Structure to design on (111 residues):
């Protein structure tokens, strides 16, 4: 039988799927929102947008993560704890990045 070939092909497909999981399906919040609008239920929209916002956050695209999470809260699910957590995480990362940039600038200036 062809079990080794089938197993190898299956593993390659799994690896490709996993490799692509860390990238948002949409390149920005606007695309994600437009795609979500085509979904039948608000729950499906919320789930998709939260997943996209998390991927934006992981990609360090804090602006798109924030826009996506804010849309969830303002339009899809005003009680979304996940969206609130994403907003808090993005805000914290932006503040940390700003502090680091200030520290780097001070160091370069010898302050």
């Amino acid at each position: 039988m062809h079990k080794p070939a089938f197993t190898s092909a299956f593993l390659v497909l799994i690896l490709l799927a996993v490799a692509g999981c860390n990238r948002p399906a949409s390149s920005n919040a606007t695309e994600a929102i437009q795609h979500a609008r085509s979904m039948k239920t608000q729950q499906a929209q919320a789930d998709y947008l939260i997943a996209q916002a998390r991927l934006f956050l992981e990609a360090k695209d804090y602006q798109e993560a924030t826009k996506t999470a804010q849309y969830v809260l303002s339009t899809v699910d005003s009680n979304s704890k996940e969206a609130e957590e994403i907003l808090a995480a993005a805000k914290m990362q932006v503040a940390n990045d700003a502090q680091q940039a200030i520290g780097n600038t001070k160091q370069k200036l010898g302050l």
